[in-house]
Amino acid sequence: MNWGTYESLKPIFYKSVTFIEQSGSYSMTTKNKERLTNAVSGGVAAFCAVTANNPLELIRIRHQLLEKRNRKDDDVMKKGYWGLAKKILAEEGWKGICIFYFLFFGVSIDFYATYYILMR
């Protein structure tokens, strides 16, 4: 999902940067346009990937940490992932589901920046 979104957004943002440049507001070199396009596309792709994947990953990990010996955990395990998600939302709210959201978003942007620096 991450790379697909990233590659799909690159031409859109490149056209947007070119349009802004042609409107007379800014002047950029081709290399700087590519850098800006890569940074914005990477940020939006990371946002989409983290938004879709992080809550599911968190629920999967918490499900693995449940203990069958504990009666309360055993009841949650019988209800499956949806039961665990409902329990987390009831006890912790949305903060419990999206706890590492901003951390992963920042790391993803750094990943794209490093990727393009190493490619050159």
Q: How would you describe this protein?
A:
Helix 1 (2-22) packs antiparallel against helix 2. The model has no long low-confidence stretch (mean pLDDT 79). The chain contains five helices and no strands. It starts with a helix and ends with a helix. The longest helix is centred in the middle third of the chain and has 36 residues, at 30-65. The protein has helices at residues 2-22, 30-65, 71-92, 94-97, 101-119. It is an all-alpha fold and 120 residues long.
The helix tally amounts to: 5
Helix/strand structural class? mainly alpha
Low-confidence parts:
none
User: How much β-strand is present in the residues?
Assistant: under 5%
Along the chain, the helix and strand elements come as HHHHH
Helical percent range? over 70%
What is the total number of structural domains?
1
Q: Specify the overall morphology.
A: elongated
Quote the average pLDDT: 79
Largest sheet: none
Give the total of beta strands. Answer: 0
Q: What is the C-alpha radius of gyration, as a whole number of Å?
A: 20 Å
* Intertermini distance: 24 Å
Give a brief outline of the structure:
This protein is mainly α. The chain has helices at 2-22, 30-65, 71-92, 94-97, 101-119.
